[in-house]
Amino acid sequence: MPPLITHLYTADPSAHVFEGKVYIYPSHDRETDIQFNDNGDQYDMEDYHVFSTESLDPLTPVVDHGVVLHAKDVPWVSKQLWAPDAAFKNGKYYLYFPARDKEGIFRIGVAVGDKPEGPFTPDPDPIKGSYSIDPASFVDDDGNAYIYFGGLWGGQLQCYQGGHDVFDPSWSGPKEPSGAGVHALTPRVAKLTGDMRQFDGEVQEVVILAPETGEKILADDHDRRFFEAAWMHKRGGVYYFSYSTGDTHYLCYATGTSPLGPFTYGGRILEPVLGWTTHHSIVEFQEKWYLFHHDCELSGGVDHLRSVKVKEIFYDKDGKIVTEKPE
Ligand code: FUB
């Protein structure tokens, strides 16, 4: 299946339906001399483009709305604009983005716009109490909004084992806890304030349970433990929390009855694609469900030069997502 966007490298697509169209908020990958490493230094992005399309028919063009935010316009950012997301509430559009601050610590920022295609004006400081990467916002039917986040290794989630506001640099790099009986690190969720620009209350851990034991997924269970790329969608009253397993390269999901969890592991959404990273979003459009994701086919397998793709996904009669193979 060909990529949706071929004139730029794009990754980490967060897709939403706004104003009757699909809007895609991806990372913008670029060439770099930085060598591949497990800390992700080669993902050296500096701006975001927004894309939209009126139809997911392959013949319908995807419109590039140009640069909507650049690192140089965000006072707290030093580098690495990684996977963003967007939300709509109360007539405004919000672009959430992770980046390293001037101390090299990942934080999450927010930028606000009047239109889904931006432009977006960034708040001068990151969201207070934010850390790590891969923000994914979710506005529930009751109007409450949440933001999920976190990523291991280069995403620094493992540096917060002592508390949400205690960064332990000794855990920096491609490391994570392991060993018999050790629980996997959890993704994080926070409710958003009414103005969508701060956390409303404490950051919470997103618990993912193994269905066969009812216990938390273990750290050594690399086929199922959370690594990065959180996403939330709701279908038929069920909350689907989905994510990447990182070094085993699966997109997986877990289901629950509350946006805050706990969630029970449900299975794989997508088998490994070409490239180390796998990242996604799931959205309903014109009564079908779609998986947006990326791979490295267009660049011939260069890990930091990825391209966004889309494919329809299906649920069985019990609401289980049918596992897809990359195309
Ligand atoms: O694009 C940079 C990082 O790679 C993202 O934040 C991760 O989810 C992975 O896709």
Automatic annotation (TrEMBL):
Membrane spanning stretches: none
Site for Important for catalytic activity, responsible for pKa modulation of the active site Glu and correct orientation of both the proton donor and substrate, residues: D134
Key words of the record: Carbohydrate metabolism, Glycosidase, Hydrolase
Keyword Hydrolase part of the UniProt annotation: yes
CDD domains: GH43_CoXyl43_like
Any one GO BP annotation for this protein: carbohydrate metabolic process
Xref: Pfam families: Glyco_hydro_43
Domain of life: Eukaryota
GO MF annotations, alphabetized: hydrolase activity, hydrolyzing O-glycosyl compounds
Matches recorded under SUPFAM superfamilies: Arabinanase/levansucrase/invertase (SSF75005)
Hydrolase is among the record's keywords: yes
Family: Belongs to the glycosyl hydrolase 43 family.
Protein name: Xylosidase/arabinosidase
Protein source organism: Pleurotus ostreatus
